Write a sequence for this structure.
């Protein structure tokens, strides 16, 4: 008997994948966790029925959420990742030579352990306990309220705005992020699909723009995520990604999606997205 799993990406649309094997299931304090092996995407992490990442295309998301902001800042030494329990974002962060400390605050320790066991390619920095890494299993919202003028770059690698991730999509949270950044700091957050989540994208862009003098949205093509087109939003106190001289970027080794041209071209938005942000 064939097993199929469907993520309902909207009320009217689902993405269905054929599953070869269920590798892990668990119910944490916060959510239902599963790791499965699929025919199309390979091994996948699923939280509360929502596809989070896969071996097939995870490099796109993790490279784009990490390298775009870290290259926008000229000298990111103190970096914080909120969420990112699979470890992929931290894996990319520690590649940057300027980074001295890469803190990671993830609310669900069961996610971390499941990914270390079943998604080792993604979680390699967690498995190897990279010397730059400082892992803390705690509430990222609480952590933000307590931090002041501490970080050069904050990366909010969160799940969808439901369940444990809901509080990471509020104006109050962005105020805390602003205070936690140094005077020239910047942050980035994944902000869902510009096709299927337009009211949310518009609302978040407005909230972030009310606090940060420089607010930019950029795109990446990620097959696993709703519509295949995903957006990220940067809030920056000083540095504009449009003004970056990509010829001077340091070497971070091989990448599979990101390159110096994409560093800028990802901010070139289709007309419908530009209209959405107005």
């Amino acid at each position: 008997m064939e097993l199929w799993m469907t993520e309902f990406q909207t009320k009217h649309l689902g993405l269905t994948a054929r599953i070869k094997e269920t590798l892990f299931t668990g119910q944490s304090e916060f959510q239902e966790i599963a790791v499965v092996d699929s025919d199309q995407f390979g091994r996948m992490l699923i939280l509360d029925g929502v596809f989070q990442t896969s071996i097939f295309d995870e490099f796109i998301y993790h490279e784009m959420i990490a390298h775009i902001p870290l290259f926008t800042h000229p000298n990111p030494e103190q970096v914080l990742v909120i969420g990112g329990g699979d470890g992929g974002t931290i894996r990319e962060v520690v590649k940057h030579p300027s980074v001295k400390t890469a803190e990671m605050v993830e609310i669900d320790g069961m996610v971390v352990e499941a990914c270390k066991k079943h998604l080792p390619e993604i979680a390699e920095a967690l498995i190897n306990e990279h010397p730059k890494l400082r892992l803390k299993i705690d509430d990222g919202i609480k952590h933000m309220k307590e931090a002041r003028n501490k970080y050069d770059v904050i990366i909010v690698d969160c799940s969808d705005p439901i369940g444990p991730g809901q509080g990471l999509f509020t104006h109050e949270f962005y105020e805390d992020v602003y205070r936690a950044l140094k005077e020239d700091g910047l942050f980035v957050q994944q902000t869902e699909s510009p096709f299927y989540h337009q009211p949310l994208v518009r609302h978040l862009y407005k909230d972030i723009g009310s606090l940060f003098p420089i607010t930019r949205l950029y795109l990446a093509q990620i097959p696993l995520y709703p519509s295949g087109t995903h957006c990220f939003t940067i809030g920056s106190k000083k540095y504009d990604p449009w003004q970056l001289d990509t010829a001077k970027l340091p070497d971070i080794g091989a990448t599979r999606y990101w390159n110096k041209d994409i560093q800028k071209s990802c901010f070139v938005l289709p007309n419908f997205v530009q209209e959405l942000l107005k």
About this structure: Residues 3-53 form a domain with the Spermidine Synthase; Chain: A, domain 2 fold (CATH 2.30.140.10). Residues 148 and 193 are 31 Å apart (CA to CA).
